[in-house]
Amino acid sequence: MQMLKIKDLRVTIEDQEILKGFNLEVNAGEVHAIMGPNGSGKSTLAAVLAGRDLTVTGGKVLYNGEDLLEKSPEQRAKEGIFLGFQYPIEIPGVSMVNFLKTAVNELRESRGEKPLSASDFLKLMREKKELVEIDSTLTNRSVNEGFSGGEKKKNEIFQMAMLEPKLAILDETDSGLDIDALRIVANGVNKLKSKERASIVITHYQRLLDYIVPDFVHVLYDGRIVKSGDKDLALLLEEKGYEWIKEEAGA
Amino acid sequence: MKKDKDKILGKVTGDEYKFGFYTDIEQDSIGRGLNEDVIRKISEKKNEPEFMLEYRLKAYRHWLNMEMPGWANLNIPPIDYQDLIYYSAPKQKTKPGSLDEVDPELIETFNKLGIPLEEQKHLAGVAVDAVMDSVSVKTTFKETLADLGIIFCSFSEAVREHPDLVKKYLGSVVPYADNFFAALNSAVFSDGSFCYIPKDVHCPMELSTYFRINAANTGQFERTLVVAEKGSYVSYMEGCTAPQRDENQLHAAVVEIVALDDAHVKYATVQNWYPGDKEGKGGIYNFVTKRGICKGDNSKISWAQVETGSSITWKYPGTVLKGNNSKSEFYSVAVTNNHQQADTGTKMIHLGKNTSSIIVSKGISAGYSNNSYRGLVKVARGAGNARNFSQCDSLLLGDKCGAHTFPYIETDNKSAVVEHEATTSKIGEDQIFYCNQRGISTEDAVGLIVNGYAKEVLNKLPMEFAVEAQKLLQVSLEGSVG
Ligand SMILES: Nc1ncnc2c1ncn2[C@@H]1O[C@H](COP(=O)(O)OP(=O)(O)OP(=O)(O)O)[C@@H](O)[C@H]1O
Ligand SMILES: [Mg+2]
């Protein structure tokens, strides 16, 4: 079943075109990896899908057959889109518990479900904490405040596990993680894998793809996908870098 | 991202004031204007003893020679004091003894405000004095409290029934000559609450006064006096609202607190006077003098306030730490939105030895509002080992609003340790987006962030009111972001 269809998407930031006719189709059950040099537009793509207010100058995005770009970010979240931020934001004074309880209950409300009781919520939290092996003291703190780089990334996966999205977009969630954390993050993604769900994994490192085996690997260069393949493409990139891709694209 | 930033900032709409209704009830009032005759009439209507009238007249004569203070960081339009009504009361048969005698319109008004006057319906453990315009309408649980020797009644009643106590303490903390508004209040004050806790009595319930301005063109001048005898304890709380009107209305109250040896008084305020509309039209001018004195050794006065209403707020609840080892704390959240202005803070005057004070002030500014903290910490020569810690934080929503901090520190004793910390932060659009991405609406995100920011202060409110105050914070910022 087709979940996401991005057609000829163009996004401009500060008078500069960043996405220049981007195309991608994602079906339920699939894992897509997006790789590409710094500044090629990967985070911009993630942001526009999540609902950041960017200037879209062309193209369209369908999510479950509906126009995604029309919807507010919170509506997209309620419909199952999750973004693991490349740079998670700190929110001083707001406890993780409060934050996630609000998020989980908003989601439930949109599905016509009752809010979770305090004890059910804490139980759910405990369960997911074990899954992503996140330190208990972290979830007692304010959202991302003072978290180390790696802790922030793990926290993104923890939130993903709590919210069980339909389409997870992970923007370099593997950057800055130690080997154990990498395995845990991959584990979190794999646990969610099912016929109804899909993920888009943005990464610079082939080694993540040893753990999360993608169905497709795409190379984003200069605002569009210039090459697609299976996981072997990632191996090739690791070996040869991006020069040859750039040359091919330029030619 | 410039564009969406503008959008977030520009969209200052929706500000819904939930208490803007007006009760159509017959009023007994004295005509506009102020002179000695008006003051005599007020005193007469209240059946006051002679000393009270004399006090009022002295204050009035002093006031005539005073000028409105101009030092606050406020833009106050001129006020025509001869165009105001100084006394207005809902007409009812003398002072009602039981609820059956209270006008059903009034009961209904307070029901709408969430302040039921029927004791059985009220929050467990809270006694209420309900004041509308110039008079107290009903005080609940009076008898229960009287069994413990606690006096909790309207100020008018105290003047008649307990003149000795009133005479002894009235003006002892805030003399009528203290400032322009205190003098005006001392001349024309109409009603308010009086509360007296006898020696070694721990008041078992929250005492609260609910002030409601209803009539138009009327100033509200209430007077509150709390006296805590040696070793006693009381937690007192006031709340206030007013109808939505295009004209500004003046509210100039005076609150005095006296804590004797080992006594502890907690005084909490949730101020939600009508703030004016989003263009800044109408709203209450809230010019208030509140002061407590830790008169006895080891006494303590704790202030907690949540200020969300009023178009202009001018208020500095403070404590005179006279007794040795006395303590005071001041916890405040002041929110300004749209065109509201607030110049508020506290004064801690250390006179006794080993006295200590804590100030935690959290300002939240949104829209086009202006929010200033002004605080004075003064350590007198004789106040050995005085300690103060002040924390003043400002949170900005948008960049058309202002936040300012004016801390004044005067120490005449070398052993004093006075610390001041200040921070300014902004709710960033990144934070809002992060919340949005997790399915949390912008309003809820602002609510989460603001309540997180104000948590330290909200925790100081009596439990019964903390939840209300939390909602209030969110409501008063509605429409201020995205
Ligand atoms: N707010 C902004 N203002 C100006 N330029 C921006 C802004 N946001 C993104 N850009 C530019 O858009 C381009 C694409 O950025 P993007 O973050 O999407 O790259 P990326 O592929 O995620 O890179 P990386 O691998 O380094 O994370 C970059 O040149 C970046 O400088
Ligand atoms: Mg990026």
Quick structural overview:
Chain A is an alpha/beta fold and 251 residues long.
- Give average pLDDT of chain B, whole number: 83
Number of domains of chain B: 1
Helix content of chain A: 25-40%
DSSP summary: helix tally of chain A? 10
Total domain units of chain A: 1
Terminal CA distance of chain B: 13 Å
- Treating each run of at least 4 consecutive H or I residues as one helix, how many helices of chain B? 11
Broad structural category of chain B: alpha/beta
Bound molecules: adenosine-5'-triphosphate, magnesium ion
**Arithmetic mean of pLDDT of chain A:** 92
Q: Please identify the top-level CATH class of chain A.
A: Alpha Beta
Sheet with the most strands: spatial strand order of chain A? 6-9-10-3-11-12
How many E-type strands of chain B? 23
Largest sheet of chain B: 11 strands, mixed
Number of strands of chain A: 12
What does this protein look like?
The complex is a heterodimer of chains A (251) and B (482). Chain A is α/β, with parallel strands linked by helices. Chain A has a single domain (2-250), classed as Rossmann fold (3-Layer(aba) Sandwich). Helices cover 39% and strands 29% of the residues of chain A. Chain A contains 10 helices and 12 strands. Chain A has helices spanning 42-50, 73-78, 96-110, 118-131, 136-139, 149-163, 179-192, 208-211, 231-240, 243-250, and strands at residues 2-13, 16-27, 31-35, 55-63, 66-67, 81-84, 91-95, 142-143, 167-171, 198-202, 216-221, 224-229. In chain A, helix 6 runs parallel beside helix 7 (179-192). The two termini of chain A are 35 Å apart. Chain B is 23% helix and 35% strand. In chain B, strands 5, 6, 8, 10, 11, 13, 15, 16, 18, 20 and 22 form an 11-stranded mixed beta sheet that branches. A 10-stranded mixed beta sheet of chain B has the order 4-3-7-9-12-14-17-19-21-23. A two-stranded antiparallel sheet of chain B has the order 1-2. Chain B has one domain. Chain B is α/β, with parallel strands linked by helices. Chain B has helices at 2-10, 36-45, 50-64, 104-112, 142-146, 155-161, 163-169, 180-188, 429-437, 442-458, 463-476; strands at residues 27-30, 87-90, 126-132, 135-139, 151-154, 193-197, 206-212, 223-228, 233-241, 248-251, 254-259, 264-271, 283-294, 300-307, 312-315, 318-321, 327-336, 341-350, 356-365, 370-379, 387-396, 402-411, 417-426. Mean pLDDT of chain B is 83; it is low at 1-15. In chain B, helix 2 runs antiparallel to helix 3 and helix 3 runs antiparallel to helix 8 (180-188). Chain B is built from 11 helices and 23 strands. Classes of the chains: A alpha/beta (251), B alpha/beta (482). The complex binds adenosine-5'-triphosphate (ATP) and magnesium ion (MG). Adenosine-5'-triphosphate binds next to helix 1 of chain A.
